[in-house]
Amino acid sequence: MIDFPQWQRLGVGTAQFGNLGHPVSDADAEAVVETAWAEGLRYFDTAPHYGLGLAERRLGRALAARPREEYLLSTKVGRLLVDNPNPVGSDEENGFLVPDELTRERDYTADGVRRSLAESLTRLGIDRIDIALIHDPDEPDDRFAEARDGAVPALRELKEQGVIRAWGVGTKDPEMAKRFVDQCDPDVVMLAGRYTLLEQESVGLLAACARNDVGVIAVGVFNSGLLATDDPGADARYEYGPVPGPQLERARRLAAVTAEFGVPLPAAAIAYVQRNPTVVNVCLGMSNAQQVRDDIALDQVAVPDELWAELARQGLLDATFIE
Fold first, then answer.
1. Is residue 34 part of a domain?
2. Catalytic residue numbers, as ranges
3. In-domain check, residue 4
4. What pTM value is reported for the model?
5. Per-residue model confidence as pLDDT tens digits over 263-279
6. What is the number of structural domains in the chain?
7. Is residue 291 over pLDDT 90?
8. How confident is the model at residue 200 (pLDDT cuts 50, 70, 90)?
9. SS3 220
10. Per the omega criterion (within 30 degrees of 0), is the bond before 140 cis?
11. 44: in domain
């Protein structure tokens, strides 16, 4: 399992730096990095996908004066940014409020990986990437074979050459991630929204990661915001859209139990994931300095074992979790 000195319990996700869902200013993006750094956070994750390169550029500027050896940075491959032949003015359809002079072209070939990383280095203004993640090989169609035969050998070679320190896959599909773990020997899996307090993956991905010494970076632990407050409402977001009734009802039941123990629901959501020894980091999206401080405070909340036992008793948590 990857064991970098810079790992901490929390990491900084930068999808919001690409104006995911709402605009974020340059100043706020800078303040996120400044505050996170002051609080000791040293892992930052980004991707070309986030705001058509905007997140990488903002993160690179914010990290420019920081000692490169003191932080970890991951970015992703699989989506090249190319000129958009049919711009409509905004990338809002893909969730990012940025101009759409560029568009994404999915490419999981070896050449695509090398080009993607070279272009990311330019946008970031740095000389190396620590972790390269194959991004969303599951959507909108299955690109596993292309990634296995193209991206994986290229990333292995780049690791052997010392260009990157680790590689893996980033996806919200635990079954797809497990195929990589079973067949490709990655260093790490970034799993989005499928190993959370709300829904625990059921295909055996984390068990496979434990058997194969693969670290898990957990993202989306608030399920797109549904678990981010103590009182999940009907206007909450899930999968970046309206929350379905069953998920809302389950979130409200979780909130009722955590309230009984005086634990904020988002604190329990973070703590649940961190209890699994295979999880090496919980990476949270942060869009301003106060959110950084709030997330760190949530991470420091003590969660009693009795809370997990009660959740299991009510059928909201697999009982094997507390054994």
1. yes
2. 50
3. no
4. 0.96
5. 999 999 999 999 999 99
6. 1
7. yes
8. confident
9. coil
10. yes
11. yes
